[in-house]
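It is worth pausing here to work through a concrete case rather than discussing structure prediction in the abstract. The textbook approach is simple: state the sequence, then state the predicted structure, then interpret. We follow exactly that order.
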Amino acid sequence: SNPFVKLHPYINEKSSMPELNESPVLLIIGTRPEGIKMAPVYHALKRAGIPTLICSTMQHTQLLDEVFELFDIVPDISLNIMRQGQDLFYLTQAVLQKTKEVFLAKHPCLVVVQGDTTSSMAASLAAFYLGIPVAHVEAGLRTDDISIPFPEEMNRRMVSMVAAYHFAPTPAAVANLLVHGVRREKIFCTGNTIVDALHSVKEKIQTKELTIRADIKERVMHAQMDGKEIGLFTVHRRESFNGPIDATLQAIKQWILEHPDTMWFYPFHPNPSVIDAVRNAGLFSLSNLYICEPVSYKELVYLLDRATYILTDSGGIQEEAVSLGKPVLVLREKTERMEGVLVGLARIIGSDPQALRDGLEWAASYQKNLKSEVTHVYGDGHASEKIVAFIQAHYDELQQGIKKIVVLRQEV
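Step two, the predicted structure:
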């Protein structure tokens, strides 16, 4: 009965997508971080009674499926673009073309994208070409170096250029947007939705509504019973390949060998460059290091909440660690999340071995002398509600706008 299902193979068979009398708000999700940060927005839209569809580009597959399961989400549309050995050229053209088809079929009144992925950039461009307004969640992050991080810095700048509404996570992000020429009335400081997701999952872990993987939980419990501290590190970004990641892993290995009183966890990214670096560093031979494939988000939150040492080149983990009051060492030369640095909970160390050693000693001292406390530098846990309140206030206006666009298309 639904012609869209017959004409387009993208509809998720598990979705109960209804026929909509109104143009929906359409959320684009392509990667695991997007899924985590958009889940609270999706559920807030549903609670508000706003017609909403999720289009998953599936830039990630298994990693994203785990997020959907955790947050009880079934995407309505799955583009299934992931291919073995995919590159940025393929991702960009595939998302651009397939989201065009979806937008023409479903006539969304608003396309909501998050962050700085290639999926967000290409989907925003498709919406812009079709005259559909774009809302950007986590807008305004900048390193002021277009190649760091690559290609994320370029992606988020392009989204900012075409977005009609900018949901900035912090006052610093608002300032960045103003500097880049975005009109003040189009910017809304909401906090970061990662804080909403983080506290929701942490609470469910504490109430045992969520169970933790046995291999992770048992190693943490045994370490704590033996009086050992917990360390967590992740390294996966493209700019770390071909040199920096090797120096970083060698420095971490040396510290681990010298400090057997810490149990380390390294959920490594299944990228061939990362796997080669791990093997070349000889990390598999360390008895107090547990190397595993990427853990689901609930396990990540569990480890972050118990860790003394956190080292990462991930933007999301920087936010999560700081939001939990944890010191974090940033394994990058630059970060677009300077708020954590400014409040004294994050240090940028790049791949310098001595900076890493100094940073680890700082983190140990910090944890011994200060109690970790929740900080609101990245938001108060209600960002998604603020975003949806704005959409709700402008919903009638958005409906009228898309009707005019559809009429114009038919006339052409």
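Step three, interpretation. The longest helix spans residues 88-106. The first strand starts at residue 25 and ends at 29.
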